[in-house]
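User: Run a structure prediction on this.
Assistant: Running it now.
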Amino acid sequence: MSRIGKKPIEIPKGVSIDINNHLIKITGPKGSLSRELLPLVKVKVEDEKIIVSVDKGDRRSRAFHGLFRALINNMVVGVNSGFTKLLLINGVGYKAALQGKILNLQLGYSHPISYVPPEGIALEVPTPTQINVSGIDKELVGEIAARIRAFRKPDAYKAKGIKYNYEVIRRKPTKSGVK
């Protein structure tokens, strides 16, 4: 049995759960999220807690037990408090600016890069070298942050580019003189 799957999920105040057949819909102060469940996974609400269980004890269902418990927990946290990823920009002349909802990036290319985020994602630029990606869907926040980072990944020689705030860039030494 999955150790993660066995843990019940606490339901915070202001969050409501609706389970219809194989569809779970979670609504909270920040919005609502829904996800389709596999027939192997059973979800029930008891005493302000969500309990996830599986029918069979085979390897595949045990894997889905922990997975769906984690996905449902991310949905509960997302509609209650939301998720945020911070990106940092390093490099001379590299900067970000926000015009309405459009993110404009100057990353050393011959042209500026404009990025329009999808619905449900909020972008903030507190300083020209920081980008905050926030939303209620953890999966979508991570995907959008990765897409923005992919415009100019940090290089190993000068560490120029876009990186996550927790990311450590291991620098390589430059080529020494050849004799």
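Helices lie at 3-6, 59-80, 138-150.
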